[in-house]
Amino acid sequence: MFTGAAFPDEERIASINAYLGAFSIAWALAEGEDIVITGRCGLSAVTPGACIQRFGRSTNDSPAAV
Questions:
Q1: pLDDT of 4-62, one tens digit each?
Q2: Which of 39, 44, 57, 61 could lock onto 65 through a cystine, CB 3.0 to 4.6 A?
Q3: What Cα–Cα distance (Å) separates residue 44 from each residue in 3, 6, 10, 37, 55?
Q4: Closest Cα to residue 25, out of 50, 56, 3?
Q5: For residues 33 and 16, what is the distance between their CA atoms, to the nearest angstrom?
Q6: What is the pLDDT of residue 66?
Q7: Angstrom distance (rounded) from CA 57 to CA 27
Q8: pLDDT of residue 61
């Protein structure tokens, strides 16, 4: 997806999963959503997502800052 590599042959794919991370949740909250419903979400993303939105962290911050 991010590397530009060719997608695998459809017959070889067993499943595809996309997990929302903390910054996706923070983005939705920043856009004004009161509730964010996720199909799949990393367990460590829910609370940090709200904190990132509230306290204004960015992907350039050090992990210790979050």
A1: 888 888 888 887 776 778 888 888 999 999 988 877 777 788 888 888 888 887 766 65
A2: 61
A3: 25, 30, 31, 15, 17
A4: 50
A5: 27
A6: 44
A7: 11
A8: 65
Alpha carbons 65 and 48: distance in angstroms, whole number? 11
- pTM given for the model: 0.58
For the chain, the three-class secondary structure string (H helix, E strand, C coil) is: CCCCCCCCCHHHCCCCCCCECHHHHHHHHHCCCCCCCCCCECHHHHHHHHHHHHHCCCCCCCHHHC
Assigned token pair, 3: 């590397």
Nearest-angstrom CA–CA distance, 25 and 47: 9
